[in-house]
Amino acid sequence: MGKVASGKIKGSSSKLLDEFNASISFDKELYKEDITGSIAHVQMLYRQGIIDKSSKDKIIRGLDYIKKEIEDGFYRFDIKDEDIHMSIENRLTELIGDDAKKMHTARSRNDQVALDFRMYVRRKNRDLVELLISLESVLIKIAKENTDTLLPGMTHLQHAQPINFAYHILAYASMFKRDYERFNTCYTRNNISPIGCAALAGTPYPTDREYEAKILGFKGVSINCLDTVSDRDFALELLFNISVLMMHISRLSEELILWSSSEFGFIELSDEYSTSSSIMPQKKNPDVPELLRGKTGRVYGNLIALLTVLKGLPLAYNKDMQEDKEGVFDSSKTAEISLKILTKVLETMSINKEAMKKATKKGHLSATDLADYLTTKCGYTFRDAYKLTGEIVGYADEIGKDVSELSVEELRRFEPDIKKDVESVIQLENSMNARNSQGGTSTEETKKQIEYFEKWIESLGERL
After folding, report:
1. Which H helix or E strand runs over 19?
2. 12-48: b or e for each residue (b if 16 or more CB lie within 10 Å)?
3. Among this protein's residues, is 442 annotated catalytic?
4. What share of the chain is helix, strand, coil (3-state, %, to 5)?
5. Domain-wise residue ranges, the chain
6. What is the reported pLDDT for 21?
7. Among candidates 210, 217, 226, 209, which has minimal Cα distance to 188?
8. Is 165 helix (H, G, I), strand (E, B) or coil?
9. What's the chain's Rg over C-alpha atoms?
């Protein structure tokens, strides 16, 4: 049968045009959605008396057979069919004859592709949400085991204040929770059916769009057909959400790379998710987090590409929009494998608690606590306490000690009113636990945060 026939085009197209125009090489990814959408459409056509039962049953049987052919690897995708929609329609015609041609009644390829693509994006939203919950569960498990594990908290990549490792990990749990929420609201907002809009202006057939939407699991139908066939906001939202997700993954990956280096030694990645150098046998490279960091640029590119395609398009459908799918397919697959492998990397890595604790003895992490002590116990203004603490830090550097290791006698050289209780204040564990304000790093507050995330994950159980 070949491509769609037209009264306007008399001659055959060139082979070069066929290659340039065809999308079958990538939009075959939508075969499930196309078949599911077509089955729902013919059920609606039969219900409305537009086609008879015999035609409906033949079409559905034929579509089921084609789906099995594709999934069993026997289906032949031909560039002459142009796209997945015509490929399936042509194969159906081979199987059942002219009844197959009734399948396209009261719809256009414009609303058909919009339906297939929207269903694909909806499915990927749910897939990514489930993978995010798996990642969150691993992060919470790590956090529960490390609420007392001291770690230098950093700003500007410089040692700043003592925190616990669980607290640091929960910062990423917070990021990925926001990602979950973005994907979830994107799913809800875009769960609207475009089918029945036809080319751009609706159809004169007595269709029932609401019925068809219900069969396909949509919460309702779109309002304006002209907007609907040219709308790709749902795809842009998915690409944006994936981009933010990958940015978060990249930030965590950067820390995994740093932490696994000899300079830090905070973690060791398992051999299962590491590689070796081709020339240096002693090396163990963090290739997985490096690849995750690198793939972030890839998904950013896909978002910018689609934004650029859409920015100057007049209503309604334009062929430029054939460029909407490959980036979405690529970003979706990239995000899926990234979430899966990051979860495994975190599950299997070893944590060197002693190295983390040792690192807290560098950088005078309890200096702020000393300044607060001078303010509350010795009558200093904070600015004056800040200045004096700076002098004490300089002294500690000269004698090769951390502020937390200074004795009361050494501190009294700078302020005679300092009492013995200062030792408790500048002790690193106490410094960490002193930050007990809501959302702070103390072990007590960290455990509350873990409890919050556990309850949140538990509340999602029925909705996944």
Report:
1. helix 15-21
2. eeeeeebeeebbbeebbbbbebbbbbbbbbbbbbbee
3. no
4. 65, 5, 30
5. 15-105, 110-148+168-206+219-353, 367-463
6. 85
7. 217
8. helix
9. 30
How confident is residue 18, by pLDDT bands cut at 50, 70 and 90?
Answer: confident
Least confidently predicted of 8-22, 68-82, 301-315: 8-22
107, 149, 169, 217 from 144: Cα distances, Å: 54, 10, 10, 39
Report the predicted TM-score, pTM, of the whole model to 2 decimal places.
Answer: 0.93
Q: Which of 195, 191, 215 is nearest to 43 (CA)?
A: 215
* CA 290 remoteness from chain centre: 17
Give residue 464's pLDDT: 41
Higher per-residue confidence, 157 vs 19 = 157
Contact 334, 249 (CB under 8 A): no
- Residue 410 tokens read as 């050494």
SS3 assignment, position 150: strand
End-to-end CA distance of the chain: 43
| pLDDT grade for 15, boundaries at 50, 70 and 90 | confident
Contact in structure between 338 and 359 (CB atoms under 8 Å): no
- Those residues whose C-beta lies under 8 Å from the C-beta of residue 147, and which sit 6 or more positions away, are 164, 166, 443, 446, 447, 450
The amino acid at 367: A
Question: In terms of CATH architecture, what is 367-463?
Answer: Orthogonal Bundle (1.10)
From 6, 156, 262, 278, active-site residue:
156
**Cα 121 to Cα 324: distance, rounded to the nearest angstrom:** 12
pLDDT, tens digit, 9 for 90 and up, residues 68-117: 999 999 999 999 999 999 999 999 999 999 999 999 999 999 999 999 99
**Coil, helix or strand at residue 414:** coil
Q: Let me know if 156 is a catalytic residue.
A: yes
Count CB-CB contacts under 10 A for residue 52: 13
Count of CB atoms situated within 10 Å of the CB of 400: 7
Quick one: fold of 110-148+168-206+219-353?
Fumarase C; Chain A, domain 2 (1.20.200)
CB of 168 closer than 8 Å to CB of 256: no
Structure tokens at 269: 């990645």
The pair of three-digit structure tokens given for residue 322, joined into one six-digit string: 């054939």
Q: Residue 279 has which token pair?
A: 């020339």
Quote the CA–CA distance of 7 and 325 in Å, as a whole number: 29
Query: Exposed, middle or buried by CB within 10 Å (0-12, 13-18, 19+), for 76?
Result: exposed
Active site residue: 13, 25, 54, 277, which one? 277
Single-letter residue type at 459: S
CB-CB contact of 74 with 15 (8 Å): no
Q: Are 276 and 282 in contact (CB under 8 A)?
A: no
Topology of the domain comprising 15-105: Fumarase C; Chain B, domain 1 (1.10.275)
